[in-house]
Amino acid sequence: MSGGGLAVADRSQHVPVLLHRCLELLGPALADRPAVVLDATVGLGGHAAALLHAHPALTLIGLDRDPQAIRVATERLHPYSGRLHLVHAVYDELADVLASLGIQQLDGVLFDLGVSSLQLDAVERGFS
User: Fold this and answer.
1) Residues 31-72: pLDDT tens digits?
2) I need a surface site. Which of 35, 49, 91, 102 has the fewest CB within 10 A?
3) 8 A C-beta contact, residue 63 and residue 87
4) Torsion angle defined by CA atoms of residues 66, 67, 72 and 76, in that order, rounded to the nearest 10 degrees
């Protein structure tokens, strides 16, 4: 991939931190019904992909401040595009994002706070 970062094949293999625990904790609120989750730090889309796969009636809103992360997540989550809203925004803008989408209630929220592989794996991104 030009511009550094993870190659397309690597992105699909990326395993987010505490994935199974996140699914376990959010599962009861999302199971067997239409639900809405906000992934406030969507990054490479690993948590989002797992949640969308596990819960067929789920709608997911994913935010990220990094435009490259939004591009990667859009590609990775394409199979779920009908149940997905990806927005280039920081999480302190989440109220505005939800209002613009007409979302008045969330059934779950995920904040994966920390650094991302996109920042660590590419020297030109400044964290390597």
Assistant:
1) 999 999 999 999 999 999 999 999 999 999 999 999 999 999
2) 102
3) yes
4) 100
- Choice between 61 and 14, residue whose per-residue pLDDT is larger: 61
Pair 109, 29: CB distance under 8 Å:
no
Count Cβ atoms within 10 A of the Cβ of residue 106 and give its class: 0-12 exposed, 13-18 middle, 19 or more buried.
Answer: middle
- Distances in Å between the Cα of 10 and the Cα atoms of 4, 14, 128 are 12, 6, 18
**All domains in the chain, ordered by first residue:** 8-113 (3.40.50.150)
- Residue in the structure block whose two tokens are 């996140």: 22
Residues contacting residue 54 through CB under 8 Å, at least 6 positions apart? 23, 27, 30
CB 110 within 8 A of CB 17: no
Q: Is residue 16 within 8 Å of 44, Cβ to Cβ? A: yes
Those residues whose C-beta lies under 8 Å from the C-beta of residue 34, and which sit 6 or more positions away, are 57, 58, 59
What is the DSSP secondary structure assignment for residue 45, as one 8-state letter? S
